[in-house]
Structure formats: structure tokens, C-alpha cells
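Minutes, project check-in

Agenda point 3 was the complex the collaborators sent over. CS summarized: two entities, 818 residues total, and the question is how they sit relative to each other. Sequences were read into the notes so everyone works from the same version.
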Amino acid sequence: MAVNLLPPDPARLRPVAGVELGWAEAGIRKANRKDLLVMRFAQGATVAGVFTQNRFCAAPVVVCREHLAQGAAIRVLVVNTGNANAGTGASGMADARATCVEAGRLLGVAPEAVLPFSTGVILEPLPLDRLLAGLPHAIARLATDRWGEAAETIMTTDTVPKAASRQLMLDRHAVNVTGIAKGAGMIRPDMATMLGFVATDAGISGAVLQTLTRETADRSFNRITVDGDTSTNDSFIVIASGASGAPPIVSRDDPRYAALAQGVTEVAAHLAQSIVRDGEGATKFMEIVVEQARTVEEAARVAYSIAHSPLVKTAFFASDPNLGRILAAVGKSGIDDLDAGRVQLFLNEVWVARDGGRHPAYREEDGARVMKNADIRVCVQLGRGNAATTVWTCDLSHDYVSINADYRS
Amino acid sequence: MAVNLLPPDPARLRPVAGVELGWAEAGIRKANRKDLLVMRFAQGATVAGVFTQNRFCAAPVVVCREHLAQGAAIRVLVVNTGNANAGTGASGMADARATCVEAGRLLGVAPEAVLPFSTGVILEPLPLDRLLAGLPHAIARLATDRWGEAAETIMTTDTVPKAASRQLMLDRHAVNVTGIAKGAGMIRPDMATMLGFVATDAGISGAVLQTLTRETADRSFNRITVDGDTSTNDSFIVIASGASGAPPIVSRDDPRYAALAQGVTEVAAHLAQSIVRDGEGATKFMEIVVEQARTVEEAARVAYSIAHSPLVKTAFFASDPNLGRILAAVGKSGIDDLDAGRVQLFLNEVWVARDGGRHPAYREEDGARVMKNADIRVCVQLGRGNAATTVWTCDLSHDYVSINADYRS
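CS then shared the predicted structure for the full assembly.
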């Protein structure tokens, strides 16, 4: 069902020196599927992350924040699917900590050097015994060429694994950027998505990497939505192993920063858009561009109002150019002094509404022709300023309802 | 498909002295269905209204606001279905005004004494000729005992007409309160719903009636949501004909004000809940109660975050007690300093989450048992204060998608 999205070719996912991956079938929720991932980083790697703003954040998110705040060098990630370890109270916290202790023991690092991640059903106890029993199997498989298998391991309702890879030159040093992500529902990241991991063998100081991670998130994972439901477990992690031998970047003013940030953003945006293309039940991919806003925040508010409207999303599912619903979504976005008479609406190249009303030259068949595509661009001009933003989303189909009505069965 | 909602018994809808209703089959969108309603009020009646906050409000909403602001005595309402006259620019405004001119001419009142209302598809020109041609037929039917037919006339995707009636005593005067409403999708009223009309033969001054109308809306139509999409055409109108002979209420301090306000609110809340019970594709009716908030606004934000979550709504559709989704919706509601560890969650009488985590005594079968009901009460306690509010909503089903993917065909 994914919209114009093919599984990644594992042969095109570049290994990142200093980053190993291994998986296990731990049986967290279902037997005989990859559901536990371990990532290990070379000594000297820097790691930065951004996490969900949901106040019911999961226990592993709390532990990740603690470990990163302590400033310990992060050497290991442990990721399970099948259970979110969210809404699990004190025992959930204990389970997340126990995961770090055991992974640290097996790999010879401190518990604080381990970050735990969980994704799956909320409000159910984590089956800790099965998770811990799976760790040695995942560790036994650690290797640098398992990015494709890692992408499979972290899938839940995803129908296609998500991975992307780039090579770029920092001065004369070739460095690799490779990442994986998962997510198809409960997707409206607010800081990051559930879950994205991007690694590079470039070197970069911890503080500068944190800046790069935030800037990257704001141009990729923080601009997608499937259903407006910000997850309890969103996490986006960037790892810089430094193993390429390129001299480390220690300042945002280093001219190589922009080059690396662009490479990481390309990988992250590809992963983020892949999540939308594989959104639960998606049959259409929509790029929502809002221009001529006073501020980027205002543009984003309008874009999300469109992207979250069930009426807009079902119209796209039906390929029905019932485009007044887009204007209604603009009007309810909460901009009190919006002048509807200055609003323009375009669907791909078709000018649908001029100055707030149906364009005299607009013909239903033009709208219908665009709506037949699987990839559609909606552009709204507000006539208020020069700020703009873009949000990516998908339609709302019968399969979204089926998937979420059946998710646990 | 409506949830525990039967059509009103026309014999139990009390006529309101001084208020006549008549309908026609004008063929606005489809032939052979009631789609045009005229209401006429006795001289001396007072009328107050609240309207959508959507900035793309429809042309008739603009005209209603103008006529009410001019202070002219309102004598006539004209309501069409099949076309919203929204996103129609200058010609839409001209069509709304022409409707008032013609209705005024036929009934011998000024155009400013007429309020126009439209509901249906957005961004398409109003078929004014057919509407005007239908007016004499509707006027020929004007009578006080047509509330049931009027409720049918204003239906769009509604499956059940919505009407309610009460009789109450103001001192020794019996007065009647009867109302009708429509709406099933694009329902997240922000001031009022699309469309509600409540009439009483009590007398009340215009200024006090406006207060009563707003207070009533805030306890009825402004507390329901189907899909979070605030309509372009929401309108809630209260008419007080004064024809009961009860001395008019001219002050909010009059002890009869509270009695009348309660009667009107009961009718309005019944209508508002009827809209949710007949929400597009609804199979469940949920009452979302949020308590222990710092302010009513904060409680409402949390309640709407739950009520709008597609994941919560699909879980209810599936009768699946996947109740962590409710906690996730609480957590993403935007209360930055929410302490998840103080949050309690109840489903009817079942204590599901205690202090932010699964209650030790909670059993999945208890949740599953409650979820089987068609009427379910969700109660969230935030542990932050004493404010509370209640929001009514419905689930998200396959039929919602079908109805909105097929709406125009």
C-alpha cells in the first residue's frame, strides 16, 4: 500500500565505519520476527538526540534524556518493537534501566553508555525477560553491514522498511551518512519521529552535533504527520563515529558543517517522507506548501490544519476535488485576523481559488485530473507576509481504520 | 447507524406560539427531497445567534451577522441544504442578499428582517433561481406544527432528524421550548453548530437573549465534536416569540432567567448530543469528562485532544481497550507542565490508570466489557486543580471514510 515507496536496496546502504548493528527474534510480542536491535559505536563517537514532547513520554525516553544529560559517552543503543514501555509507571522505568544494565554488562560499558528505545503497544508491561534473553543473540550478530536488517527489525505497522544513505566529501575526506526509521501511525512528530537513527563516520563534537540534530529534525521529521497523534516514544538520534578519519567539526561556523548538515537532512527527509508514504492505509502522498504567511509558525499552523483535517484527507482518498474542504481547514486554523479574500489555492499547477473564492477559470475536470495522481502538491498563499513552510502527509482511507481497529489483534 | 438515537416523535414536539415553519422541495442539489425551510416569527419576537469562527465563513453567515448587528427585528429565516454558499466570493454574497430580498418581498418585511442559512457542499455556486422558485411553496405551508418536517428539511448526511421539546413554568405561565438541528460531519462547532434553531414562546429582551444564547451554546453545541473540522456555516439561533403571554424577561437577574436558560440548554444539549449520536459513521457515543484541571480551557484542551485522536476513535470503533492511546492523547494536548504521574483514567466505573501507569488491579477483560457498550464515559483526572468540563464525541469508523469519500457523488 505504500505510496511510491520501494524497499531500500541493502547493497546501496553504505556501512558507516565505527557503527555495528545486530538483531534478534526475542518474541517480545510475536514469535519468529526480528524485534530487537542492538547498535554499538566505536570509542570516541558522539551521539545526540531529540525526543517526543508528549507529556506521557515512555520510560525509555526518560532514561535516554537522563543518560544524555549526564554527558557520558554513548556506546550502545537497544531498540525493541512490540511494546512501547509507555504508561507503565515505576516498573516500566525499572525495566528500561535493567535493559541498560544488562546490555552494558554484556558489552563491557557502563549502563549510562546505553540508550534504550521501545515502540509498540502502550499501557502493557514490557516482557523484560524475553528482551534480556534476546540481547546475546543480537550482540552475536553485530556487524557494519546490517542496516537493511536493522530497518526491518524496528518495523511495527510499517509495510516497507525505511533506510537511506548518502556519501559526501568533507574537504578531501569521503564520509558516509546512513539512517533508518520506522513509523506509520501515531505520527505527528513534535521534535522527532518514532524512531529515526542516522549515523555518519564524520567526526563532530557533541554540542555541535546536538545543534545539527535539532536543525535536521525541524526540516524533516518535524514536518510530517499521518494522523496528528504525537507518539509517546518519538526519538531521533544522530551518531557521528568519527571513524572516517576526517578531522572533527567542532564549530557550527566550520564550512563543512553546512555540507554535513545537508547530507544528514537529505537522509532524514527521505526517511521522514518514507514514513508518510508508508502511513497507515496511505494511498496518496501530499506535500502541503503554505506561503505568504507572517511567520513560519503561522504557516505551519495552516499547513497542519489542512494535513489533519479528516475531511480533506478522505477527499484525497476518494480522488474527489472537493477542494472547499481545504479552504475550510485554512479558515479554522486559528489565525484570527486572516483575510479570506486574499487567499489563493493551487493544486499542482491548477489555480483553484483566487482571492478566497472559486477561480472563474477553474474547471472541475482540472481538479479531478490532478487528484488522480498518487503524489499531489497543495499550495496555499495567505497574502500576509513572506514566511513559508512545507508539511508532508497522506490521505485517510478505509485501511487506516482497519489497521488501527485491529492493531492489537 | 445512529447511536441510541431514535427519530423524534412529531406528536411530542410542542408548537411554539408565534413561530411558523414551512418547507419546499426546491431541487437545490437533488430532486424530490425537502431542502428549503422558511420560518416566520410574530411581530415582537426577539432573535439572537452565534456563528462559526471559521475565517472562511459562508456568505449567509456574513449576512446574518450584518442583519443582527443592524438591530432590525428579525421576522424570517430561510434555510437551504445541498449547497453551503461558502468560498463563493462576491457572487455568493449577492446570492445571499437576493434570498433576503425575495423572501422579504413575499412576506411583506424588509430584507434586513430576514436571516439566510445554507449547508452543503463548499466552493460551488448557489443555484439561486431554484431556491427563489421554491420560496412560495415553502411559504404556502407555513404552520406552527411542522417542527418534525422542518428537522427533516435541514438534514444533509444526517441519518436521523434532530428535534427536542420542553415545557416549563415561568411563575404561573407555561412556556414551550422547541428546537431542531442538523449536522453529522465537519462538526467541531466553535461558537455554535451547523445548524441549530431553538424557539420559545417566552418573552425576553434582545440583549438578554444574546447572553442566554451564548451561555447555552457553551454548554451544548460548543462541547461536541465529530471530526474536529469547524464548519464554514455553523449557526445557532434562539427565537423568543413572547406569544405565551408570560411577561418578558429583561434582565439576567430575573429569577426566571435561570429557569428559561435551563430549559433552552436542555433542548440544545439534547440536539447537540443527537448530532454526535448521528455523527458520520458513528457506532459509539463517548462522553469525555476531564476533571482536576487548572482552568476550564485546560480541561477542554485535554478533552478535545482525546476526542480528536484518530487512534482513540478507531480503538472505540473496534471495542478494543487499547487505552494507552487515551494517555498518549492527554500527553500531547499541549500542557507543558503536566505531571503524568498524577493522572488518573477511568472508563465508566473501571479504574484503568492510577498515577500515570496501569492500575495494578486493572484487568483487560474489565476494559473490554465497558468497550462493548454503545455509550461510554471516559473520565480523566489531571491532579492539577478544580476545573472540569465535558465533551461529547463519537468513534471513527469505516463508514466515516465511505461517507466523506463519497459525499458529492
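Noted in discussion: Chain B has a mean pLDDT of 92.
Follow-up: revisit at the next meeting once the mutant set is ready.
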